Amino acid sequence: MIVSNQLNNKLIRELVGTRKDLAVVCEDLGISLQEVTRRGGPGIPQCTHCGRWEYKLIPDLDNNPICKYCRDIEGM
Fold this sequence. Notes:
This protein has 2 domains: 1-44; 45-76, no CATH class. The chain is 42% helix and 5% strand. The chain has helices at residues 5-15, 22-29, 33-38, 68-74; strands at 58-59, 65-66. A hairpin with a 5-residue loop joins β1 (58-59) and β2. α1 packs across α2 (22-29).
């Protein structure tokens, strides 16, 4: 099964702003998790601190991508 752009867009819409598990969302949408991971992931990064899926992440002091919320908590 090939993940089409339309299904990938649905996947991203389900993930943005949440901490949902990628495997659960893929299962809910009927998308193959193996195909998504083979293509390099869902196309949206995940915060390494809180696990929230966001379009724009910034590097922390260790160069790990974090969201604005975690940046504020870290006092950066």
